[in-house]
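To whoever is on call:

I kicked off a structure prediction for a single chain this morning and the downstream step that reads the tokens threw a length-mismatch warning. I double-checked the sequence; it's 67 residues and nothing unusual in it as far as I can see. Pasting both halves so you can look.
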Amino acid sequence: MTLPEALLARSILESAGIECFLGDQNIIRMDWFLSNALGGVKLRVREEDVAEADALLGQGWVNASEV
């Protein structure tokens, strides 16, 4: 997941009251070349919130280049 995608996803989850944080965010902000080696930014949620988070984020995003 890219940093902009992760920030948007975090915003969606936090607005729904789901606690979450971004893993490897600071490292990738400092040196984005490491993103591929680290597997991108990781959105972390509690195990009991996974189903709800997946449902919220799985509603479909519209790619601005396709509109």
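Update from on-call: the warning came from a stale cache, not from the record. Cleared it. Sanity check on the structure: Residues 1-46 form one domain.
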